[in-house]
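Format notes (please read before filing issues)

Several people have asked whether sequences and C-alpha cells are stored in separate files. They are not. Every record keeps both together, in the order shown below: the sequence lines, then the C-alpha cell lines. Line labels are part of the format and must not be stripped during preprocessing.
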Amino acid sequence: MGLLAGRLQRIKPSPTIAMTTRAATLRAEGRDIIGLSAGEPDFDTPEHIREAAKAAIDAGHTRYTPVDGTASLKRAISGKFARENGLDYAPSQVTVGGGGKQILFNALMATLDEADEVIIPAPYWVSYPDMVLLAGGRPVIVECGIGAGFRLTPEALETVITPRTKWLILNSPSNPSGAGYDRAAMQALTDVLLRHPQVWVLADDIYEHLVFDGFEFCTPAQVEPRLKDRVLTMNGVSKAYAMTGWRIGYGAGPEPLIRAMAKLQSQSTSNPCSISQYAAEAALTGPQDYITESRAAFQRRRDLVVAGLNACPGLTCPTPQGAFYVYPSIRDLIGKTSAGGTLLDNDEAFANALLDEAGVAVVFGAAFGLSPHFRISYATSDDQLREAVTRIRRFCENCA
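Then the structure lines:
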C-alpha cells in the first residue's frame, strides 16, 4: 500500500505556476527576467476596497462566517447579477468560495460520477481538465483553432455530446486566448444545449469586465433563460478589481446544486476569509470607476503587444476581444533552431528557449490543450511589455 492516492496520478502540477516559479528562481539567481506567465493584474486593489477590509478588522469581523458566504455578501452578489446581467438569483442560490477556482472545483466534485463527461473547448484554462479528472470525470477536449477564432462552434458542440455528457465549461472572454462569444455566437450554442437536457453549463465569467473595442459581454443564462435551471454562473473579484490575493469567487445557480456545493465546502475549507468577504462586498456595491480605468490600460497594452508580436518573424497573433492574454501561433517557427542551439520542435521547447536565451517567461500552448502556440499575459507595465516584445522579436529573428 503506497502513501499517495492513485487519483493524484491523473493530474499534473499547474504549468502556469511552474513557469512562474522557474522565472522567479532565475530572477533570484540574478538573471534579468520579464515575467509574462502569471494572469494577475499589476494594479493595486482600489482604495475603498482596502478601507472596507480595514474597517471590517476594526469592527471585529474576524470570526467564522456562514460556510459559503455572509448574507450581506450574497445579497450584493444577487444585486450584481440583476444589475449587470439581468439575472434574478435569490441569495439562497448564491455560493461564495475561496476564489473562482474553488467554485469550479466544488461544482465538479459535487456533481460528477465516474465516467461522466465534461466538454472543454481548447484552448482552455489549465485547471479545467485536471479538476474533472480529480472528480472522476472524463474531459472531452474540443480543439477550437485559430481559424475558428478560438471559439467553439455549434456544429462541433453537437458532435461531442453523448448520453454521458454532464457539463459544458464555457469561458468567455477566454483564458488563454482572450476570445469572447458575442450574443449571436452564444445563442447558437444555447440552441444546441436546449436539445440536450442532460447537459449543464458551467459559465466561467471571471473576465466579464475586461472586454475591448465595444465588445458586449453576455452569459449563457442571460442569452437563453430556458437554460437557467441548469447553468452555474461563476464569477469573482480577482480580475475585475485587482484582488487576486483576496481569494473570493462566487457562483449562482439552482438551489439544490448550491446546497450540494455548500455541503462539500463545509467539509473542506469551510468559510472564505471573513475580511475578504467584506472587501468583496465593497467591490461589488461601491464605485466602479476602477473597472473603466483598468480596461482602458489593458486595451492599450493589448494593442501594443499584438502589433509587436505580429512584427516578429514566424509569429501570428490574433487580436483578442477581452481578458489580458494573447495566444500567438508559432507554426512558422516549428522545426527551426534558436540562436542558443535549441530545436524548436514544439511550443514547450520554444517557451523554455525564450526564457533561457531572452529572459522572457511565457506559457507554452500545450498546457492549454492547443499547439503550437504560447500565452502572454499583458497584465504588466507598458515599459516591460515593450522590452519583452523587443526581446521576443530578436529571439525570432535569430532562429534559423
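For reference, the curators noted about this record: The first strand starts at residue 34 and ends at 35. The two ends are 51 Å apart (CA to CA).
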